Amino acid sequence: MARISAFDRLKGLPEVFTTRSLPGLLGTDRKAASVYLNRWRERGLVSSLGPQIGVHFNLLRNPKAGQERRMDVLAYFFPGAVVAGVSALHAEGWTTQFPRQTEIMVPARKSLPRVHGATLHSRPNRWFSMAKAHVARPGPVLMVSPAFALADCWQTGHWHPDPDDIEWDLVSEADLTAAFCLFETDVPDIWKSFLDQGSTEPESTLEGP
């Protein structure tokens, strides 16, 4: 029987696979599968979702699998996950601050594994109930509105931006005030003069929980 190379074995695997499923996919035992996986990683042919999560992307099948399938995988392993924090603000142009990692909120759990290119934060179930009504972008992992994200950042102490960090000409005072009300807190006084000067005041889309 002809010997199948590690390269050819990888070509036959799907774009996304798990450490647990790999022995069955290869028809080998766990030890041999681990050797193959390490070889592929060393050659840059496979990337992983995180060091503690046994999910891998087959870059031989699709060099962009890590980017294109990442949110699908996150949604599968962390049901209800939502992009928020500074990531949501930057995506909608409300701040020029660029987060080095995507900030993702997940339902409260005992521990949060490391994810390459992302930071996971826990939020209570009530938070996710509120977030459903304030979605800025759909997708496998939803993204909350910038107003909701900013109110959450302030209320939790995750980020207290200086006024210069915010693009006030894009901020809706009505949306921001409504979002802060959801979190039962007030818009900081230091921001109010900037809101008066820069707010575009579009019609508010925020509603109560």
List keywords for this structure.
209 residues, alpha/beta, Arc Repressor Mutant, subunit A, 2 domains, 5-stranded mixed sheet, 3-stranded antiparallel sheet, 10 helices, 8 strands, 39% helix
Structural account:
With 209 residues, the chain is of the alpha/beta class. It folds into 2 domains: 63 residues, Arc Repressor Mutant, subunit A (Orthogonal Bundle); 128 residues, no CATH class. It is 39% helix and 16% strand. A 5-stranded mixed beta sheet has the order 6-5-4-8-7. It has a 3-stranded antiparallel beta sheet with strand order 1-3-2, with helices on one face. A hairpin with a 2-residue loop joins strand 2 and strand 3. Helix 6 runs antiparallel to helix 8 and helix 8 packs across helix 9. About 3% of the residues have low confidence.
Mean pLDDT: 92
| Strands in their spatial order, largest beta sheet | 6-5-4-8-7
Terminal CA distance: 64 Å
Number of domains: 2
Radius of gyration: 21 Å
Q: Specify the biggest β-sheet.
A: 5 strands, mixed
What is the tally of helical segments?
Answer: 10
Percent helix, as a range, is 25-40%
Judging from the principal axes of the Cα atoms, what is the shape? Answer: elongated
- Report the sheet-strand fraction: 15-25%
Q: Low-confidence parts lasting 5 or more residues at pLDDT below 50? A: 200-205
For the secondary structure, the number of strands is 8
